[in-house]
Amino acid sequence: MATPAQLGLQNATSPIMEELIAFHDHALMIIFLISSLVLYIISLMLTTKLTHTSTMNAQEIEMIWTILPAIILIMIALPSLRILYMTDEFNKPYLTLKAIGHQWYWSYEYSDYEDLAFDSYITPTYFLEPGEFRLLEVDNRTTLPMEADIRMLITSQDVLHSWAVPSLGVKTDAIPGRLNQAMLASMRPGLFYGQCSEICGSNHSFMPIVLEFIYFQDFEVWASYLYIVSL
Q: Which of 31, 61, 161, 194 could form a cystine bridge with 165, CB 3.0-4.6 A?
C-alpha cells in the first residue's frame, strides 16, 4: 500500500504491475533526456552570441528533428502495446470472481463455488483494531489464492464505479448493465488495498477494497468452511 510522502508507484505484486513500473521508468528516462536537451539548447541560446541568424536552408537539421521524434515515439509505443495486449490475455483462469459496485459498498460472488457470496463494507473508525488502517479496512476481506490467474468480472448496480488495486496493476470501470473483465494474480501472500476510483456520490471515499492472498491449500479450506457455514 502507499506510504506517507511516497513519490513513486506502489511495490508490484503481480507480473503486470512489474511490467507497468518498468515501462513507467522507461518513459520517464526518455522524458528526462528530452527535457535535459531542451534546457541545454535554451541555455545556449541565452548565453551564446548568434552568428548564423540569416541561415534559411538547413536540410540536415530538419531531417534530424523530424526523424528523431518519430524514433522516440516508436520506442514508447512498442512496449506500451506489448503491455496492453498482456493485460487482455486470459489463459485458463483458476478462479472467477465477480465484483458488483453499489452505493457505497462492494459485493463479491465466487462463480466457481455454489452460494459463495458476500458484501464488503468499510469498517467504521471506532471498530478498528490496533494496526488497521482508517478508510481502508472492510468487514469482509476478499480471500484469493496466490500464484493463480484470477478472472475478475466487474459491474455495477446503480452508478459508475471503478474497481482498482494499484499494487496489482488493476483498474477497471464498473458500469451498470455492462460486464467488464480483468485478469489479476499475486506472486506472494498478503493484504493488498484499493479503493473505488470513480466519483460515485457523497460516500465515494468510503468504498475500500481489501484482497487477502493466501496459499492454495488454505484457500480451499477457507472456501469449504464458508460453504459448510452457509448450509
A: 194
